[in-house]
Amino acid sequence: MTEAREAILLVGGKGTRLRPLTVHTPKPMVPAAGVPFLTHQLARARAAGVEHIVLATSYLAEVFEPYFGNGSSLGLHIEYVTEREPLGTGGAIRNVASRLAAGPDEPVLIFNGDILTGLDIRTLVASHTTSGADVSLHLTRVEDPRAFGLVPTDGSGRVTAFLEKPQTPEEIVTDQINAGAYIFRRSVIDTIPAGRPVSVERETFPGLLASGAHLQGMVDSTYWLDLGTPQAFVRGSADLVLGRAPSPAVPGRCGDQLVLPTASVAADAKLSGGTVIGEGALIGEGARIDGSAVLAGAVVEPGAVITDSLVGAGVRIGSRTVLTGAVIGDGARVGADNELRDGIRIWCGAVLPDAAVRFSSDE
Predict the structure, then answer these.
(1) How far apart are CA 237 and CA 227, in angstroms?
(2) How many secondary structure helices (H) and strands (E) does the chain include?
């Protein structure tokens, strides 16, 4: 059997690194390429044969069900389980186990709600089945693994250790990291302690390894991006629009730009680099927007220049204002002739007067 018919999607995180984007919206519901990021993950799971998905929710849990309902519009059966107290990744998996219908030896797909990946899910399931593993992990290779947990494997792909965020050169024994997607044998989920916080990365996996369980790693180095920071989120959205990150849920053809149907873009405005313009947004004359996401109802006035930035819902950007690597929270107002760059974040509803922030040309 090369299909996992059931999946658990972990969407309970607060997305603190993404604030102010996540003040009113849970991270998986922030739009990427015109639809909530979660839509891309659900569509990819469906395309790989998944039929039933349980969403493990916590932060702003009430937002998910009104949008996705029972999942029928995506060809899925979706259920929702909300944690009263945050339980961590392992605790969240255990908390929703009763909703699964899979038999003890059947595969269950589990993935994190903040990873954009081109992983071939069917290949991961096939590898899991062939190897007879208890748990299979998607691994990817990164140039600098210090920010991640390392997962070395032997010649057959069997996991030999879990090393959390190494700092010294001696500790970096592999460039393989845990990429946030797993196949669990259904019976293994029931071995996770119930009713308390558990980290699957720090407790469950090392514990299984120590007990002699078979953990298999599959290295898949197609597209992979952790959307934990605003800069990464903007890049992920652009890569979806450009077609670099594959998704059946992009609402239009892939290319340099994606303009949603009710948006209005001036004829001489220039959109490039995978820019997305959300529903009801208005882009004025001569504006130039590259590699950025302008969310629903935002207004970009004439002559503004926006690069690698995220403009939240209902924001107004004044004429000739320059944004580079900026994040503007929902409902903020940035006056004309400002220059904001280098990762600056403007809070939701904030008001910045005309010409309040400028950089001189010799800086």
Answers:
(1) 10
(2) 7, 28
pLDDT digits (tens, 9 = 90+) for 64-94: 999 999 999 999 999 999 888 888 889 999 9
Contact between 359 and 342 under an 8 Å Cβ cutoff? The reply is no
How confident is residue 363, by pLDDT bands cut at 50, 70 and 90?
very low
Task: Determine the Cα–Cα distance for residues 16 and 9; give it in Å rounded to an integer.
Answer: 19
- The set of long-range contacts for 310-317, using a CB threshold of 8 Å and a minimum separation of 24, is 310/21, 310/230, 310/233, 310/234, 310/237, 312/20, 312/21, 312/348, 313/278
> Cα–chain-centroid distance for residue 226?
6
Q: Pick from 107, 145, 159, 324: which is nearest to 224 by CA?
A: 145
**Bridge-based pairing state of the strands 135-141 and 327-328:** unpaired
Whether pTM > 0.85 for this model: the answer is yes
Can you state the angle between helices 230-242 and 37-47, rounded to 10 degrees?
Answer: 50
Q: How far apart are CA 36 and CA 240, in angstroms?
A: 12
Phi, psi of 94, rounded to the nearest 5 degrees: -65, -35
Each as own residue / partner, the long-range contacts of residues 99-105 (CB below 8 Å, 24 or more positions apart, any chain) are 99/54, 100/6, 100/8, 100/52, 100/54, 100/186, 100/189, 101/6, 101/52, 102/5, 102/6, 102/186, 103/186, 104/185, 104/186, 104/187, 105/185, 105/186, 105/187
Q: Are strands 215-219 and 115-117 parallel, antiparallel or unpaired?
A: unpaired
Question: Cα 144–147–149 angle (5° rounding)?
Answer: 100
Residue 134, both tokens = 């208890």
**Strands, sheet with 107-112, edge to edge from the N-terminal-most edge strand:** 77-82, 52-57, 6-11, 107-112, 176-185, 135-141, 215-219
CA 230 – CA 343 distance, rounded (Å): 8
Evaluate whether 236 touches 32 at the Cβ level (below 8 Å): yes
**Radius of gyration of the chain measured on its C-alpha atoms:** 22
User: Cα(329)–Cα(316) distance, rounded to whole angstroms?
Assistant: 10
